[in-house]
Design goal:
mainly alpha; 3 helices
Length: about 60
């Protein structure tokens, strides 16, 4: 349960950052990840790790 909050929070933040960037220009999710990392004052690698954890948890079983 301790992993659920950070993973969900970071995943949502990444999705929102990517959506905002997509409306303004062609920046990639990589750049959105960097923005989220800066906002949370976390290393980019840590943000990506949590995003992958959240993505794995959101996938239906058997995929």
């Amino acid at each position: 349960m301790a992993l659920e909050y950070p993973a969900c929070f970071i995943r949502t933040a990444l999705q929102r950052a990517a959506a905002l960037r997509a409306r303004r220009d062609d920046r990639s999710l990589y750049e959105a990840t960097q923005l989220v990392a800066e906002a949370l004052r976390m290393p980019v690698e840590e943000v990506r790790r949590w995003a992958l954890i959240a993505e794995e948890r959101e996938r239906p079983e058997g995929r």
